[in-house]
Amino acid sequence: MTHAIVFDLDGTLVDSVGDLHMATNKMLAEFDKAPLSLATITSFIGNGIPALVGLARQEVGLPEALQDQMQTRMLAHYSDHPADLTRPYDGVVATLTALQAAGHPMGVCTNKFHAPSVQVLEALDLMRFFDVVIGGDSLPQRKPDPAPLFAAFDALGSGHRLYIGDSEVDAETAAQANIPFGLFTRGYRKTPVDQMTKTFAFDDYAALLAWVSAA
Fold first, then answer.
1. Dihedral sign (CA 128, 178, 192, 214)
2. Rg of the chain (C-alpha set)
3. Residue 15 three-state SS
């Protein structure tokens, strides 16, 4: 059975918090603010860079009037170094290679803006696996609104659908879209696995390949 498979990016395919952490702290330094911890920045990931910057801005006590300026500076730092520390999770490349060879069309649907998403995928030689990348600025809506996920699947054609993500936002998106959801448990979620809505959960990409092969 062929599946069209769409993946979230940060916390699902790649561990990107190191570069997001560095870019955010470089931006904060420009506003004379002390750096935030890796754990704090990790807790801010999931709703895109504007949300991350907004949470960082609130954390250090800066006014909303500076949001656009801070976001511009953070994106500039991030675009300069989008994948210095970012790496695919173990097993991602082997699993994507096998899924592609088996004829499963694949895409990415992320709340990260489209341009830096493609930058990361290209820097890590992952872009070759995906027929579509929908970013947080590709449509007026962003996850957990299901519209971006539907757009990604529509670009992949007909067939059985499966969405893979790591966070509460991803779980809600899949539920609103009524699409089966595989939860990668090593990402950036805050909720215990047993409290999240999912079709199945996995912490090893070999298990994802086995699930798709058996479905």
1. negative
2. 17
3. strand
Q: What is the DSSP letter of 13?
A: T
- Measure the CA–CA gap between 69 and 74, rounded to whole angstroms: 9
From 8, 15, 19, 166, active-site residue: 8
CA distance 131 to 6: 10
CB atoms inside a 10 Å sphere around CB 77: 19
| Structure-token match 């499963």, residue found | 104
Can 131 be counted among the known catalytic residues? no
Ordered by where they begin, the domains of the chain are 3-15+86-214 (3.40.50.1000), 17-80 (1.10.150)
Ranges assigned E (strand) in 22-177? 87-88, 106-109, 132-134, 160-165
CB 113 within 8 A of CB 77: no
Percent of the chain with pLDDT over 90: 97
Beta bridge pairs of residue 196: none
Using a cut of 0.90, tell me whether the model's pTM lies above it: yes
